[in-house]
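sorry to bug you again but im stuck and you know this stuff better than me. what follows is a protein written twice so to speak, once as letters and once as structure tokens for the fold. mainly i need to know what kind of three dimensional shape the backbone takes. anything you notice is useful, everything is just below:
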Amino acid sequence: MQTSAVPDLAHTDARPVHWLATATAMAAVVAAAGLLQPKAATASQPGSQPQISTAAAPAPDPAGVQLPLECGGAKSVVTKKASGDLDGDGSPETVAVARCDAGSGTPPSAIFVLTRGNGTGPRVVATLLEPVQKQSVGDFAVRDGAVTATLLGYSSPDVPSCCPDKQEKVKWQWKGGKFVRTAPAEALGV
């Protein structure tokens, strides 16, 4: 066996105080690394102007608008509502299903599209379903820039108003500056 030309090293015979000193030094390094963090990363290039995020205005509330319903002495009531960007301008519209609060039977529904006015409150910009059509609204949704609904109606005047016997699935989409109602087969995706 060959002997080493290097003298004995002090750290080859470690004592508990050496381990404690090493652990303390490592803890100090970890703590310092936690305190000294780089600046937050951004996706912009150095010297470019930061993008300012503007939050979209909230969808209009139907309670803030007088709906164009003729209810005689009764009040009108919003039975369903949903919001979404229907015209692609980045601002949400609200679609409200409303009817007269008649108290009995199934009064016909109306479907209105509301938007925010310029500096004013919400306003009605379109009527998708008129009460004169004598239909009520079952399922209803605003999704992917479209309004879908199941319209319930009557096959004849002899059918009691409590019990609609016809059902039609419809869809409205903003096309060419107006809401276009698609045929029932298209609304079902057939």
Remarks:
- Residues 41-45, 48-54 have pLDDT under 50 and may be disordered.
- Helices lie at 16-35, 184-188.
